[in-house]
Fold this protein.
Amino acid sequence: MQYKNEEMAKPWSNVGNFPQGSKDSSMEQPHRNESMANFLPPEQFSHDFKNSELTKEQDEFWLMRFVSKRRLQPSENKKSKTLPLVSEVKESVLSVCKLVAELTVLCQHLRQNVENEDTWTKSYQTAIEVKTGLQEKLKALTDSEYISRVKKKLGAIKKKRRNIRRKKQECCIENQERKARMAEKETKIDTWRMKRVREVEEKKRERELKAAADSVLSEVRKKQADAKRSVDILRALEKLRKLRKEAAARKGVHPPSSADETFEHHVERLRKLIKIRSDVYDAEERALRVMLEGEQEEERKRENEKKLKKEREKLEKQQREVECMLFGDSELPPDHPLQPFCQYYLQAEHSSHVLVQIRQEWDRYLVPGDHPDGSSIPQGWIFPCPPSSDTWGTALKQ
């Protein structure tokens, strides 16, 4: 069986060029190659097989060359020139200074030993060696790029030291400010603690004084009760003697009149003594009551003063808030843009001459009280006039 077209007899060696996503071509290729191998003669089949191997090698070579061209070449990292160490530069400069000093000594030795040929020759060779070493050392030190790198390194070190010094100063200032804040807080805490201690001591002293007054008053009342009980006992004794005297009279026993006089005398004396004691106790009670009322009055006054102080502080705070909203904060920082204006309008509070000048400027506009255009300075806030129409009133309300 012969094919009209010789190209169709060749096996499909370039099957890789076809799209791999096609299902029919991938499944159909082995079948076609197998069928072609069955129909071709052995000589032609072997020849075609060799051609397919050659084409395969060519394809592999072309693919490798393509991949090698497309492969990203690793970029050579530019070795950054490291900055020289200051210690090395210092050692180089010191070694150069030593070599210069040594060369100077050798030159002087050569001048002194011009007539001595052997010594002069040895010194000359040594001087040549020292000169060679000095030139090698000076090559690096005279290189402009090397010097610029050294200067850059020194600039970086100076900058670093400056930053460290600045940070130390900032830390020192911050520590001082922190200590000042801590000292201020401790002062406030101590003041508050002493105030609280005084308040507690005052309250304790008031309680003790009140307790002592109550105890004294209770003792006085107890003594008054004892005096009343003594008066009741005297009355009971008089009544008992009267009953016994009546009982003895019924029996026919009559006591002498001197006994009655003696009894009456003792009773009257006891009554006077009890009355004197009662008057003393009443006076003590009145004094204690006056003292307690005075303490209560003082306590009420202190409470009223505290209330008035709180109300006054509240009003002052409200007044400061209103003034701050209208005129701004009076305690502005030094770098605030409104600080010059604030100083200008508040300069009369710190200078009497400025106060007199401002008062003179105000006094220029003084007029008699009956002047038609005259008016006094308002003592409070100036409120707006009522709206002239209902429409304007609605706009104000909105």
